[in-house]
Write a structure and sequence with these properties.
The complex is a heterotrimer of chains A (about 525), B (about 200) and C (about 350). By secondary structure, chain A is mostly helical. Chain A has helices at about 5-15, 15-35, 40-50, 55-75, 75-80, 95-140, 145-155, 160, 165-180, 205-225, 240-265, 270-285, 295-310, 315-320, 325-335, 345-350, 350-380, 385-405, 410-425, 435-455, 460-465, 465-490, 505-515, and strands spanning about 185, 190. Chain A has one domain. Chain A has a two-stranded antiparallel sheet. In chain A, strand 1 (about 185) and strand 2 (about 190) form a beta hairpin. In chain A, helix 7 packs parallel to helix 22 (about 465-490) and helix 11 packs parallel to helix 13 (about 295-310). Chain B has about 200 residues and is mainly alpha-helical. Chain B is built from seven helices and no strands. By secondary structure, chain C is of the alpha/beta class. Chain C folds into two domains: about 5-135 and about 265-335, Bordetella uptake gene, domain 1 (D-Maltodextrin-Binding Protein, domain 2, 3-Layer(aba) Sandwich); about 135-240, Periplasmic binding protein-like II (D-Maltodextrin-Binding Protein, domain 2, 3-Layer(aba) Sandwich), CATH 3.40.190.10. Chain C contains eleven helices and ten strands. In chain C, strands 1, 2, 3, 4, 5, 6, 7, 8, 9 and 10 form a ten-stranded mixed sheet that branches. In chain C, strand 5 (about 165-170), helix 6 and strand 6 form a beta-alpha-beta unit. In chain C, helix 1 (about 5-25) crosses helix 9 (about 275-290) and helix 6 packs across helix 11 (about 310-335). The longest helix of chain C has 22 residues, at about 5-25. Residues about 1-35 of chain C have low confidence and may be disordered. The chains are: A mainly alpha (about 525), B mainly alpha (about 200), C alpha/beta (about 350). Chains in contact: A-B, A-C, B-C. Chains A and B meet through helix 3, helix 6, helix 9, helix 10 and helix 11 of A and helix 1, helix 2, helix 3, helix 4 and helix 5 of B. Chain A: It comes from Halostreptopolyspora alba. Chain A: Keywords: Membrane, Transmembrane, Transmembrane helix. Chain A: InterPro entries: DUF112_TM. Chain A: This is Tripartite tricarboxylate transporter permease.
Chain lengths: ~525, ~200, ~350
């Protein structure tokens, strides 16, 4: 059967009244949970499994999938308004979303995020539909050596995220990797840097660090600024000019593609995708210096990437039975409870589940857009709250988010500690983004490096003899060499410059680099 | 002045101390001998510690630029798209940074836009920040013994009133409302139990 | 529920009595301590999953909760509490510190292995075994086109050139997959210390890495191996069950291959250290009833769990035996951490 008739079959399933109701419930619950800082889709899905149990398997999965991509869709709201990432995948959205909101463009930032999310989700679904089975095989060709090379390439983004002082950016990144290594080492079960605190045995939860160095540090900054009133003006307007849409669309397109492919790789997921999307977009931009001050492309790229990745992560989940992230791990559990065994045979054994879910994602994305756009002015009003009230409320939200994650008071102390660290870093010109980048990529990089060397019995040649890994490493070297050479030539620290982007945007990057030079 | 800003030298020394401590811990990590592993658990940490030390050294010899902007918001070139008000305020930390060059501009520029009362009560921003950290610490400390409902209500009401929110009735209603909404929403809706303290619900 | 304390207790006794009769009729030998078990829970039962939401323990806890409540096997509510951290150690100390018969936890081999690795102050002896609920077996898989024909063959190849054969598993060295593999290799006459074991984050990931050609073989739970085996991408060499497994008719057990070894990924429930006989008897009863329900059997089948109920006493003996076996394997491989 060709894809179109299969999709028609899928829509037949997805558009049944029952499934329409549940996709609506799913994305609604997802958006709400995504908006609350800290609370992620994982707990939401876990808690909806009992509800899903006893439903028809397809309906249940349509709903649970809706919770997941709904949360990624809604997660940008608190990133943009409060600098408090709703879920891990939206940390990068705050880099430009929050500055834009502070400059009075909250409604606009939210609108860009919603439209980019929609685009990312939709592009993701189209790709999922067209090439999922083939992609699964590509994902399998990624072994430890390839992952290592990918992580190295990702880490070179530090150069573009570092801002004005490369030294400080690198220090920040090294600290991030150091935090990533805390806990029981998965490769040898050695306990590292835990100071004998059992609470640290499983490492430091990513979201605690992100909420600390972004949300709490921002609260300190608000306090130090000593302005009591909330913002006013046009915060709630979500009107975009044609020029703005012209800026947003290509960035979101690139982000969607990049995000989807990153999502397909197990282990990478929405968070990594959004960072890759952001840094790639900054590298190829003609105006990299405006990233971080409210650049439209800086919102569009990570938002489309994380939504693309959320959809992309269904490729390994459904066609290989491999969960690429914590969220898809729990979805896998849910599928098993419902009697659906994902794997290479799923497309032939249970086509109604696969095509029903794919079709429901089209529906779900439209529902999300329709649901979120009218809510933007309401959400944006948050910024009009007097600061004296906003400050304790943000603290409470962070505390609830972190506590709901681990039920541990210890983690709340960590949150406060990272808040203080984040503020001190900010005051002294250390960017927080490289720290987060080091944290998400560092652990994966070490793990895959050691797996690869274990397989090759210690021979480092494994990284350069495999074609994919060698290509990725070469790209990494190139993307470092460009800015460094230029920095040497100009004798001042490199902020962010060209160098091929990851995946999709390579052609453009060459072009823009030429223009930037001329 | 910018609170808690230190010279590059001071920061470099602090980082070097962290790096040194980290290296000590890294070198104390036992080697894994049960199975032959090409990369020891301590390999990467040793490298990281060394690199951090080197970076600290580099930083030590960099002069502290008087007006180095905060880095996650490289100074203020307004985006072509910016449609809202762009006076005074630049991006989040760009503003703190601009304060580095001309003392007190941070507060001033903000006051220009809004002309409202100040946040908090202490005149020294550093003390104000420390007091704030203290209040969050108190919140965390009491969270489990008193339960989420009571602690959160007290914290939100107390902080907001202290920071200068004068509509006490609204504040009281709001703090009770937010605490209750979160508590019951989480425990009933999401099945996530927040600390209940000495109460039976 | 809380208003009249007497009524529920009467109901409890009646229900308990009835269940014993039922059980006696149904399976004759299990569960029937004595019918005078007066104790019944006075407040909601807290079922601790010492892991985050979504993991195997969480799944076990939430499945049990659902079946117990839906089938009205308990008079009180059942609440799942997630206490992640320390590979379980945080949750175990949480149960131990309260020492409350209403606070139980779900468990599996890590309660033996984590203390053996020296990473927890609490071991299985600090708790009261209540029930063994289900089990899953370990399987050893190779890619379909692999030249390796049997588990013996695999061990031979490892013995000849240990560096050339990499075997992946879904957990760290010294934890479940590795211990099972090392034990089997040892029983087959190989040297477990020579194993080139590559740890991944879960059996499913290990399987795809193997099918992708990055490692040569995988040790993983039967359920995690299933998708790739059913699609023909991978082939099972052996399963670690003592008896042939119905769901894997074509896969020989190690015993059938002439290797005297079995390994059990068992799942069960334990309570705090101090429990009275009446309390133990109560839980013995409800869990025995639980595994008999249709709901439970359906879910177990979906999740790839084999039925293997053990009552409190059997479960306790079983734990002691497994502990001794695992300790031996870990000693052999040099991964034992509680004595160093």
């Amino acid at each position: 059967m060709d894809t179109l008739s299969l999709l028609g079959y899928g829509f037949g399933i997805a558009l049944s009244p029952e499934n329409l109701v549940f996709v609506f419930i799913g994305v609604l619950a997802g958006t709400v949970i995504g908006v609350l800082p800290g609370l992620g889709p994982i707990s939401a899905i876990a808690l909806m499994i009992p509800v899903a149990y006893g439903m028809d398997a397809t309906t249940a999965i349509i709903m649970l999938a809706g919770v997941y991509y709904g949360a990624v869709f809604g997660g940008s709201t608190s990133s943009i308004l409060l600098n408090a990432p709703g879920i891990a995948g939206t940390v990068a959205t705050s880099f430009d979303g929050y500055p834009m909101a502070r400059k009075g463009g909250a409604g606009k930032a939210l609108a860009i995020a919603a439209l980019s999310s929609f685009l990312g989700g939709t592009v993701g679904v189209v790709l999922l539909m067209l090439i999922a089975p083939y992609l699964a095989r590509v994902a399998m060709s990624f072994g430890p050596a390839e992952y290592f090379a990918l992580m190295v390439l990702g880490l070179t983004a530090v150069v573009s995220l570092a801002g004005d002082n490369l030294t400080k950016g690198l220090i920040s990144a090294v600290l991030g990797v150091m935090i990533a290594l805390v806990g029981i080492d998965g490769q040898t079960a050695t306990v590292r840097f835990t100071f004998d605190l059992p609470e640290l045995y499983e490492g430091v939860e990513f979201l605690i660090v992100a909420l600390g160095v972004f949300a709490l540090a921002e609260v300190f900054t608000i306090l130090a600024r000593r302005t009591a009133a909330g913002s006013d003006g046009t915060v709630t307007s979500l009107r975009l000019t044609r020029g703005e849409i012209g800026q947003m669309a290509p960035a979101a397109g690139r982000g969607s593609l990049l995000g989807f492919f990153a999502g397909v790789l197990p282990g990478a997921g929405a968070t990594v995708a959004s960072f890759l999307g952001y840094s790639a977009e900054k590298r190829i931009a003609r105006d990299p210096q405006t990233f971080g001050t409210g650049n439209i492309k800086g919102i569009a790229a990570p938002e489309s990437a994380n939504n693309g990745a959320a959809v992309g992560s269904f490729v390994p989940l459904l066609t290989l039975g491999v969960p690429g992230s914590g969220t898809t791990a729990i979805l896998l559990g849910a599928l098993l409870v419902l009697g659906v065994q994902p794997g290479p045979l799923m497309l032939t054994d249970r086509p109604e589940v696969f095509w029903g879910v794919v079709a429901s994602m089209y529906v779900g994305n439209i529902v999300l857009l329709v649901l979120n756009l009218p809510l933007i002015p309401v959400f944006a009003k948050v910024l009009k709250t007097p600061k004296a009230l906003l400050v304790p409320l943000v603290v409470v939200f962070c505390v609830v988010g972190v506590y709901g994650l681990s039920f541990s008071v210890f983690d709340l102390w960590l949150l406060l500690g990272f808040g203080v660290l984040g503020y001190l870093m900010r005051q002294n010109g250390f960017p927080a983004a490289p720290l987060i980048l080091g944290l998400i990529l560092g652990g994966l990089m070490e793990e895959s490096m050691r797996q690869a060397l274990q397989i090759s019995n210690g021979a480092w040649s494994i990284f350069v003899t495999q074609p994919i890994s060698a290509t990725l490493l070469a790209l990494a070297v190139l993307s470092l060499a460009g800015p460094l050479l230029r920095a040497l030539r100009q004798r001042r620290p490199a902020a962010a410059t060209g160098g091929p982007g990851n995946g999709g945007g390579q052609g453009e990057s060459e072009e823009t680099r030429g223009q930037a030079r001329s | 002045m910018v609170p808690f800003r230190f010279s590059n030298r001071t920061v470099a020394v602090a980082i070097a101390l962290v790096a040194a401590g980290y290296l000590v811990l890294a070198f104390r990590l036992p080697d894994f001998t049960a199975v032959d592993v090409p990369v020891q658990p301590s390999t990467l940490p040793k490298w990281l510690g060394a690199v951090l030390l080197l970076l600290a050294l580099t930083l030590f010899f960099q002069r502290t630029p008087p007006d180095e902007p905060g880095t996650d918001a490289p100074s203020a070139t307004p985006t072509a798209a910016g449609g809202g008000e762009e006076t005074g305020e630049t991006a989040a930390s760009g503003e703190d940074a601009s304060g580095g060059g001309s003392p007190a501009s941070a507060a001033d520029s903000a006051d220009d836009t809004t002309g409202e009362a100040r946040l908090g009560r202490l005149s020294d921003t550093r003390l104000e920040l420390l007091a704030f950290v203290g209040s969050v610490a108190g919140y965390i400390l009491l969270l489990v013994p008193l339960g989420f409902l009571v602690t959160t209500t007290l914290y939100v009401f107390g902080s907001a009133a202290y920071l200068g929110y004068r509509r006490h009735l609204v504040n009281a209603l709001l703090s009770v409302g937010v605490a209750a909404l979160l508590y019951f929403g989480m425990s009933e809706g999401l099945n996530v139990t927040l600390p209940q303290g000495p109460f039976p619900f | 529920m809380l208003s009249t304390p007497r009524t529920p207790r009467v109901t409890a006794t009646v229900a308990a009595g009835a269940s014993v009769v039922l059980l006696a009729g149904a399976c004759g030998e299990t569960g029937g301590q004595d019918a005078n078990g007066e104790w019944a829970p006075e407040q909601p039962i807290e079922l601790v999953a010492p892991a985050e939401t979504g993991g195997g323990w969480d799944q076990l806890a939430r499945t049990s909760e659902r079946v117990l409540v839906d089938n009205e096997l308990v008079e009180q509510d059942v609440q799942v509490e997630n206490k992640p951290g320390g590979g379980g150690a945080i949750g175990w100390s949480y149960v131990d510190s309260a020492n409350d018969p209403h606070r139980l936890f779900v468990t599996s081999p890590p309660i033996l292995l984590v203390p053996l690795a020296g990473e927890s102050d609490h071991g299985h002896n600090d708790f009261t075994p209540l029930a063994g609920l289900a089990t899953e077996y370990m399987t050893f898989a190779v890619p379909d086109d692999s030249p390796v024909q049997s588990f013996d063959d695999l061990v031979q190849r490892i013995s000849e050139d240990p560096e050339s054969v990499s075997v992946a598993g879904g957990s760290a060295p010294g934890s479940m997959d590795h211990v099972a593999l090392a034990g089997a290799v040892q029983a087959a006459g190989g040297d477990p210390t020579e194993l080139n074991y590559i740890p991944y984050d879960g059996g499913g990931e290990a399987m795809t890495q193997m099918v992708g050609g990055h490692v040569d073989a995988v040790a993983s739970g039967a359920a995690e191996a299933a998708p790739m085996v059913e699609s023909g991408d991978a082939r099972l060499l052996a399963v670690t069950a003592p008896e042939p497994v119905d769901s894997l008719p074509d896969t020989p057990t190690l015993q059938e291959e002439g290797i005297d070894y079995d390994f059990n990924i068992w799942r069960g429930v334990m309570g705090p250290g101090d429990m009275t006989d009446e309390q133990v008897a109560y839980y013995d009863r409800i869990f025995a009833e639980m595994v008999e329900t249709e709901d439970w059997q359906q879910e177990a089948e979906n999740l790839g769990w084999e039925q293997s109920y053990m009552d409190s006493e059997e479960f306790g003996e079983f734990l002691d035996e497994s502990y001794a076996e695992s300790a031996e394997v870990l000693d052999e491989v040099g991964l034992r951490g509680d004595q160093g």
